[in-house]
């Protein structure tokens, strides 16, 4: 017997945080750049032809041939011991003494950010960020219900004097920084500011999230110390790392290095989120680090990115309206352009797409007071010739 259909009741509402965190307004426009004829400076992607696919495949083959029963099984939340040891060894060799026990393997550094938000942030807590900053970090803090406040920032990143003032006024719980080749600006925080930031955090008792997915992509100049390495903030700085830009983002592997007081809660939060990061992916990454020469691979990547950055810098003066300014990052994947006052990079984007070229407007990267004349250009995914052609098209769009 069939039952009479009951009137369908209304569904309960989504959580407020799901209604309030907006999708990026330029997402739909940028979806149009997937056409193969578009030369895109928009994406934040590593160059796919530079992935060491053969080396990574050999690593997967080997762990599956030798240890299938282990690498296809559930594993610990903290992560593969060999991978944690390899990360700790790399950090220690670069001057940041780290034990394998200080490392939690994550599903990309994005998960590291979301674990931090879970264990640290109550709705209404203040998070300080650079202005502008990484869009998905803004979304992550937004989902936690945090109040995100931008720190006054200049061409060298956050201004420590302004930071201290803001800390006294806002009593933030967390400061989120990308000190090397920042996304979206490509800026690098000078060493003396890193020290000053660590001292402000030490004096006023806030946590620092030091997000460093791009540090290994330095192709000029000297490597700078991590904020985590300054004594003043050693017990309150979490370093977030990623294999996305050094190995492959599709593997979704990252890590965080945190003081014990924060590492344990992050492990428990990760257990609740996904139990652990893929066992086989972690094992393959550890095998890759042991069997392949990551530094030789990174040298190839950096050499290519440097030539691509140079092609972009060479073509920009002719491509942009007179009076535009931009920076010259010593590494990473992006540079930052400011069009002359009165120009609106979002309004100009459809014209660029009509000419089969794309960039990302800067506005969505600001937590507040967006500068509409700014835009981000990535130099990683096209050859120097394609970059030159892309810039010719941009001239037409801006003409
Ligand atoms: N932080 C920053 C600043 C990024 O630019 C990105 C990705 N582009 C991430 C974190 C996330 O990286 P992952 O692939 O390791 O999750």
TrEMBL record:
Q: Where is the Aminotransferase class I/classII large domain?
A: 61-394
Pfam families associated with the record: Aminotran_1_2
Q: Which UniProt keywords apply?
A: Aminotransferase, Pyridoxal phosphate, Transferase
Q: CDD domains, alphabetically?
A: AAT_like
Q: Which GO terms describe its biological process?
A: alpha-amino acid metabolic process
Against InterPro entries, the record matches this protein to: Aminotransferase_I/II_large (IPR004839), Class-I_PLP-dep_aminotransf (IPR050859), PyrdxlP-dep_Trfase (IPR015424), PyrdxlP-dep_Trfase_major (IPR015421), PyrdxlP-dep_Trfase_small (IPR015422)
One GO MF term on file is: transaminase activity
Q: Which cofactor does it need?
A: pyridoxal 5'-phosphate
The family annotation for this protein states: Belongs to the class-I pyridoxal-phosphate-dependent aminotransferase family.
Indicate the quaternary assembly.
Homodimer.
Protein name, entry field = Aminotransferase class I/classII large domain-containing protein
Species for this entry: Actinacidiphila paucisporea
